[in-house]
Amino acid sequence: MFGKEHLERYLATDGEEGYEWRGTTIAILTTTGRKSGEKRSTPLIYQEYGDAYLLVASQGGADDHPLWYKNLVADPEVELQIKGDRFKARARTATPEERPGMWQTMTAVWPDYDVYTTRTSRVIPVVVLERV
């Protein structure tokens, strides 16, 4: 979706380049690889939701979860960067009760998430990040 160049520009400019993308906003999620133990950073569409931040583990509607999602399920202690603000956060998957409202928040800024649901039988997770 974004690629290495997008990530590098965002990190080098504290989001001055790469924060705004195709009409929405991007954060950088850093997880710990569940197999390698190495830090992995991924640019993702995000939205604020109360005191939390939301991400969608869509992978364009692929039948398997994205690697970053598998990593945060294995180790929910992550880092999020929004422009120049880098902070530790704890990640969790939205509950079935929370998900509908959160999904609506995310599809309001990226309507293709609804399209992605037609490409897969899996329930696409909404991830909730809370500062720690």
Automatic annotation (TrEMBL):
This is Nitroreductase. The lineage of its organism: Bacteria, Bacillati, Actinomycetota, Actinomycetes, Streptosporangiales. Gene3D superfamilies: Electron Transport, Fmn-binding Protein, Chain A (2.30.110.10). One of its GO terms (molecular function) is coenzyme F420 binding. Belongs to the F420H(2)-dependent quinone reductase family. It catalyses: oxidized coenzyme F420-(gamma-L-Glu)(n) + a quinol + H(+) = reduced coenzyme F420-(gamma-L-Glu)(n) + a quinone. One of its GO terms (cellular component) is plasma membrane. InterPro entries: F420H2_quin_Rdtase, Split_barrel_FMN-bd.
